[in-house]
Amino acid sequence: MAEPLTFDALASSEYVLSTAENFVLYVLLEAVASGAGGGAGGTRMPLNLALVLDRSGSMYDERRLEFVIEAVKFLAANVAPDDKVAVIAFADKAQVIVPSDQIHNQSVVRRALEDIDLLEIGGGTQMALGMRAAIDEVKRNHAPNRLNRVLVLTDGQTYEETACLELATQNRDQMSFSAMGVGVEFNEKLLMRIAQDSHGKYHFIGDPAEIPGIFEDELQGLRAVSVRNGRIEATLAQGVQVREAFRASPEIYALGTPLVTDDRKITYEIGDLESGVPGSVLLTLVLPPRKPGPVRIAQSIFRFEVPGVGERTAALDIAVDYTLDRTLTSKRNGRVMNLVDQVSIAKLQARAEEELKAGNVDRATRLLGNAIQGTQRLGNVKATQALVGLMDQVKKTQTLQTKAAKTTLLQAQAVVRKTQMLDPEALKDLQKGE
Q1: What is the pLDDT of residues 50-86, one digit of tens each?
Q2: Were 128 and a residue from 121, 136, 143, 163 both cysteine, which residue would form a disulfide, CB within 3.0 to 4.6 Å?
Q3: Which long-range contacts (CB under 8 A, 24 or more apart) does 96-103 make?
């Protein structure tokens, strides 16, 4: 039986300066699932989904609800016989409009969607109610051999934001949550947190016509999952410190203040892995001075589940050579440094956003300029275009309050957060080091 995944550790340098008091080393821990998706023998795992759809008054703008209905029809027409999918509509109240065992009854689905306008659920936005109903539906069919996920779509600010976050984190051991924001009025920070904290996906939808395609992408991604509940554990050698930790792929975001246990262990949950899509964490380590020679600075284990097989592990050592030769320490692993640059650009964009909110337009513009230089150096054309558009809006409006500025910001966030995957030939060159 072929190995279900590869687990590798790449350091920004193989050499550490022996006399340096605080030598900074970047370490990429990366797992890549093999296979075509599914469990043992490539068998596809059945889905257990619940769709949480905003039906507040604003969803009638720009034909948003029409595109949602089209997306649900697509999903219902493409689920497998053993899949379970529930549909919940919410506004001031929440209501299950398609029970999970009725998704294969096309007449029931069609009638529910045609009558969605007639639901007496108000016109506000109580997303937590919709999430609770969805969680109940998923739990009804929950099974370890199923892919259990809640998909939430909204276009506005919701009441009880804290409750929404708590629902996602409290239930993340049983299901993941993907969050979709349409337009510019929703709270993107909330939806990002819901997705990140539960190992789902976050989608910004600037054009409602994109909604069916997003649903299709979610379905394809779920079909491609071949490894479940991935978790990276690393035990640090004495004196080694963690300064920062970022999720490095498939999206970039901070993992918060590292929690190092008494036995010097750190743990990062990765969630489910789609075949061929890296799940990785980038650590910024600070190393103490040591005598020249090889040193193991950490041990790492990747724990995961293969459906139909059970829990598996992959382990490796992370070692470097301490040296007095500065020319050796100047050599860098190109692939790791490429990801370090991508993380730095995402940090610059986020800092620029904070400066704008504080009214510091000049600082924000300088930060965006630095980010643009970074994307140009990496050859990331899409990110460069997105950031240039954002800077133009900032210079024009001096704020993020206009619809055009907010749209440009959300587009830039989405592009900058997405890890730029290099083509195979460039990847081979970079892995050899610079």
Answers
A1: 999 999 999 999 999 999 999 999 999 999 999 999 9
A2: 163
A3: 96/133, 96/137, 99/137, 100/48, 100/50, 100/137, 100/140, 100/141, 103/76, 103/79
Q: Model confidence over 230-249: pLDDT tens digits?
A: 999 999 999 999 999 999 99
The full 3-state SS of the chain, as one line of letters, equals CCCCEEEEEEECCCEEECCCCCEEEEEEEEEEECCCCCCHHHCCCCEEEEEEEECCHHHHHHHHHHHHHHHHHHHHHHCCCCCEEEEEEECCCEEEEECHHHCCCHHHHHHHHHCHHHCCCCCCCCHHHHHHHHHHHHHHCCCCCCEEEEEEEECCCCCCHHHHHHHHHHCCCCCEEEEEEECCCCCHHHHHHHHHHHCCCEEEECCHHHHHHHHHHHHHHHHCEEEEEEEEEEEECCCCEEEEEEEEECECEECCCCCCCCCCEEEEEEEEEECCCCEEEEEEEEECCCCCEEEEEEEEEEEEEECCCEEEEEEEEEEEEEECCHHHHCCCCHHHHHHHHHHHHHHHHHHHHHHHHCCCHHHHHHHHHHHHHHHHHHCCHHHHHHHHHHHHHHHHHCCCCCHHHHHHHHHHHHHHHECCCCCHHHHHHHHCCC
Distance CA 131, CA 185 (A): 19
- Amino acid, res. 407: T
Mean pLDDT of all residues in the chain? Answer: 92
Pairing status of strand 176-182 against strand 202-205? parallel
Residue 151 phi/psi, 5-degree rounding, is -110, 120
- Please, which pLDDT band fits residue 434 given cuts at 50, 70 and 90? very low
Could you tell me the pLDDT band of residue 257, with boundaries at 50, 70 and 90? confident
Handedness of CA 263, 268, 273, 277 (dihedral sign): negative
Which range has the top average pLDDT, 27-36, 251-260, 288-297? 288-297
3-state secondary structure 329-351: HCCCCHHHHHHHHHHHHHHHHHH
Residues in the chain: 434
101-107 LR contacts (CB < 8 Å, sep 24+): 103/76, 103/79, 104/76, 104/79, 106/76, 106/77
Going from the C-alpha of 38 to that of each of 83, 224, 272, the distances in angstroms are 13, 7, 11
Whole-number Å distance between alpha carbons of 98 and 372: 46
* Nearest in space to 314 (alpha carbons), one of 232, 392, 206: 232
